[in-house]
Amino acid sequence: MFRLLGYPSVSCDGIRRRDLLRASSLAMLGSMVKMLAATAASDSSLQTPQRRRRVKSLILIDLFGGPSHLDMFDPKPAAPEEIRGEFSSIPTVLPGIRISEHLPNLAKRLDQTCLIRTVSHRYNSHNPYAVMTGFTGGQDNIDYFAKPTNHPSIPSVCQYFGIGRGEELPGYVMLPAYPGYSQGLRRAGPYGGYLGPNYDPLFSSCEPTWNTKEGKVSFYDSDHRPLGEPTLPKIDAGLTLDALNLRRSLVTQLDQAAQRMDTLVATHKIATKRNEAFDLLTSAKAREAFDLSREAPQIRDRYGRDLFGQSVLLARRLVENGVTFVTVHTEAAQGNGHWDTHSNNFKMLKNILLPFLDAAVSALLDDLRQRGLFEETLVIVQGDMGRSPRVNKNAGRDHWPQCGFCLLFGAGIRPGLVYGQSDKSGAYPTDFPVSPGDLAATVYHLVGIDPEAMVPDQANRPVAISHGGSVIHGILA
Q1: Pairing of strands 421-422, 454-456
Q2: Residue at 42 is within a domain
Q3: What digits encode the pLDDT tens for the residues 92-134?
Q4: Which CATH number covers residue 116?
Q5: For position 6, what pLDDT does the model report?
Q6: Which of 5, 184, 314, 427 has the smallest set of CB atoms within 10 Å of its CB?
Q7: In a domain, 41, yes or no
Q8: CB 223 within 8 A of CB 349
């Protein structure tokens, strides 16, 4: 069977014409990208001076749906029960700082992190658009789904300016699948947008199984956990490497005919992206980097034997092998795996979501230190919004973008810092509010790009990459 980010399609020889077309257009669908250096170099007016680069790699763990800050990193133990919720808080290694009782491993490591408790914006939407771009002016009727006019993601902008070019491996990878995978849609956020599909990430694929029952379950089921691991598009017994190279030859012949109909520039771009897709599928280094069986069983156990724990482990493997930007997006399986806890908030957090986060992020922090990657890798953990201060009648919390959290550690980050404070109900920041644009500006600063730089939109108009955000100097080492 030959599968490229879609659903399986098999014939007697292991591949159908549709699969060949998928292979030849993989990058055009946002599945394979590297930066075309000539694209950025062609417009010198939009180049930005290279600055001191403090971050070699970035791992973003995007908690899709809106994690409850009150039940995680900003508890209010003195508040009334309808605000405080069902969980107790525990002390951390930082004097006077408490977090949820269900994050014991992170409580012991909080002195190695920076915790922002005042992420605030107005984009009340379930996609990673603000998280991935720093832009918070989107509207669901316009920006919910990915489209070419979207603002580009932070890694896409970095690649445009020459940071994160892939060689044997792509420079920008998203795990375990594209946002919206479980619902058959593509959410806005991770793409190159008006910079073009050359700056889209490589999306891995996944085929989750379940720890309990099979089939569709309640959106708020607190026992149904997705298992499995992200993978490259597969080459197995149905399609050998020799057969794939034969298809490359056939596609080359089709290109020769296409050149008589298309412009040279268009044909060159398509051929370049297609060749990158073929190179990835036949790359021994890529297959080795994505092979989680090379990890010791005890390491895999520490991260958690579920789809998202293994995705975080794979993120470490990828940066270790030279990938610059890796995002783990926690919405790639039907059933649970999301943080949109309008109902059953406390059981979902207690049984599935907080144990996953506590184990995987703690393991990643330790692993980066042990492998000498901590001082060159920036890790960011955040979601699209926080949750409402008041618990609703369904034992859930509703959308609340006015206040949320972000956890950072690694390269360039000041450890042992709690930045910002929310009010007594966790509804609004009382000091140091932080926007997604501020976080974007800080990332650009750390990777060596001028946060005030601009890129061209589809009409060649300059657009600020930080969308009005400013570097958060107070959290920098």
Answers
A1: unpaired
A2: no
A3: 999 999 999 999 999 999 999 999 999 999 999 988 999 999 9
A4: 3.40.720.10
A5: 31
A6: 184
A7: no
A8: no
